[in-house]
Amino acid sequence: MNSPSTARKLRVGILGCGFMGTALLSGILESIAGSQHDLRFAVTASSDASLERLRQKFASHNDQVDTITSDNVEAARTSDVVILGFQPQQLGQILSDSALVKALQEKLVISLLAGISSKQIAETIHGRADSGEQDRISRVIPSIGAQINESMTLVAETPLSSSDRDLVNWLFQQVGRTQDVPEELVNTVTAVSAACHALTVVAVDAIVDGSVAEGVPRQMALDVAAQCLRSSSSMLQGHMSIESLKQSMSVARGITINALLQLDRGQVRSGISDSVRHAVRYAEGFTKND
Length: 290
Fold this sequence. Notes:
Elements: E1 9-15, H1 19-32, E2 38-44, H2 48-57, E3 65-69, H3 72-77, E4 81-84, H4 91-94, H5 98-104, E5 108-111, H6 118-126, E6 137-141, E7 151-156, H7 162-173, E8 176-181, H8 186-213, H9 218-236, H10 242-249, H11 255-265, H12 268-289
Parallel strand pairs: 1-2, 1-4, 2-3, 4-5, 5-6, 7-8
Antiparallel strand pairs: 6-7
């Protein structure tokens, strides 16, 4: 990843370490294993069951994950960076604690809360909606790939100092790639990301079923499909355009062009586009209703 030339020494608190927080932390720990970076983590959860889950999950990382607690205030107070990882609807309840709000006012706060703008966070923590650089609030949406260091993390373009912005990007580049996005487009691009994951899984599932129907063992078909998907996505990241990739595969009377023509008979292409547009509109309507 894009690590700096000098070692990082950083304490990170993850408040409400649920599925995404756990995936993020797992990916970071894997990425920095054996590196020069000295990262320590304090994670919180509200229930005994969640705390026990975190203890079991990170039992082999006691040196890095040195605090697992239900005390949000202490975790925030002792951290340099605080990640808000709880459910969006819990924002008002959790930040009704004045001691926690005070602790957060001096920190770089990174919000993973879907549908909650940086201005809403600023208003809750600082008592005003005009978020500025001095508020040190970043809004970030990782993808599920964070747990295997393959996230496409969306970083909202919020007012931050260059050092804070670099730190946010570096931290999330430990678990994949980051993409700066104008904040007004974050919900839209989040919907695109979610739809892409879902539609891709459905496509692979259909490919595997079709392969099995023609006599290919299921695991073999899955391995081939997954690797082809991986190689295609890698080629599209700066190596080839969609048009050139399609042209290179579609030789005269070839397998690929005939497969594509058969696919078009079912109006799959327009169905995919319509699904993405529906996801975007749903996300925009959902966040407006909130």
